[in-house]
Amino acid sequence: MALNNRNLIELTDEELIKVFQQTNSLEPYEILVKRYKDPLMNFVFRFVGDRDACTDIVQDTMIKFYLNKDSYREFAKFSTWIYTIAGNLAKNELKRRRRRNIFSIDNSDDEKSPQIEDKTFFAPDRVADSEIKNEIIQKALLKVKPVYREVVILRDIQEFSYEEIAEITNLSIGTVKSRINRGRTRLQKLLKNIYKE
Amino acid sequence: MGINSYNDDEIKFARMINDLKELPKVDAPDNFEYNLLTKIQNKNFGVEKTARVKFNFIKFFAPSAAVVAVIILFFLFLPTANRQNDNPLMSDPAVISRNQGVSVPQESLQSNMRESEAAKQFSSAENKKFAQAPSSDNKTARSESINQNKKYPISRSPSVALDDYISGDSQKRADLKRANVVSSGNEESEFDGFFIREQADKQTVEKYRQMMDSLKKAKAKQDSLKKANK
Known about the structure:
The structure holds two protein chains of two kinds. Chain A is mainly alpha-helical. Chain A is built from eleven helices and no strands. Chain A folds into two domains: 9-104, Rna Polymerase Sigma Factor, Chain: A, CATH 1.10.1740.10; 118-197, Winged helix-like DNA-binding domain superfamily/Winged helix DNA-binding domain (Arc Repressor Mutant, subunit A), CATH 1.10.10. Chain A has helices at residues 5-10, 13-23, 26-48, 51-67, 78-103, 109-112, 124-127, 130-143, 146-157, 162-169, 173-190. By secondary structure, chain B is an all-alpha fold. Chain B has helices spanning 8-11, 14-21, 32-41, 57-85, 106-115, 117-132, 138-148, 162-167, 171-176, 178-182, 202-229.
């Protein structure tokens, strides 16, 4: 299969990984990395909340993809497959952190978490400022349980369909919908100062 | 991707969902691809591939088997160990015969002790008495200490003068018996050889004496008849 770089760019994700599986060349792999590095960074950052850790997780995701390319099957969408890998690594990182916090002598978890519901923390006029608002939303998002957080991010930030989320999380569509609903309710409760009607 | 239509559930969260969508996108650092490809080319994957250790029956049960073996050995050899722990300095020393310098084995003495009930009684009651006796009275102490030696009741005397023994006149000869020597020579041992000790009554003694006399007479008569025949 004699494909130059220009032709490769025009290929879909599934076609690219097929080429990568067959030729074992780095070109299709690099194209897939370019396509998915930013969406994955965004997803993992919203899920973990730490930029350095997020970079490592996405790097590990890409390495896993490189090492386990043959485990990908055509019937699945490449996007859901790679998001599943990234999601699992992100969950592992969160578990590791929780374990570290349990055994850590100086548990500074309270210091890290902002007082979202504290009205004196940010002045109301400043809340309107989008940068601070985004920061508050991100911190509130991190306060939501990971099982709800993941699906809310996938649905509302990454804009996946319910079917795709069900495939990524290996859950039924019903479970996905109920988790999204619970996650949103919890998030809105945390952000009641912003969304008070 | 790219869903903007809200269903009934999403309407009440519409503002929040919009804000979530508008959150700034986080991009990968510039050197992301370079670092990744460097890792791949150097095969520095950083993924720990720890081979799952296969279940090894022997390794798994070796510690417990060792513990069980130690317990079994402990119970098997515990009685022996106790026996060995007996301090030989604390046990009674073997008594050496004064005359012949023959040491009597401790075990044989103990077995003989078991046979002689009288000796046991003696060693218990009399020994206590001896232990409490004042040291000034050497003679009494000596005689009583000798009684202790009744542990050795079997007479080692090679021969027995039956007549003397029966008649009870054998005080001097009996003194020569080894057992009696051991037990001071003043008293006879409770158990002499394989005979059951009985006090000879006078009637029996007379009876045996008459028998002996008649035998002597018969012998003398036989001798005289032989001489006459010659």
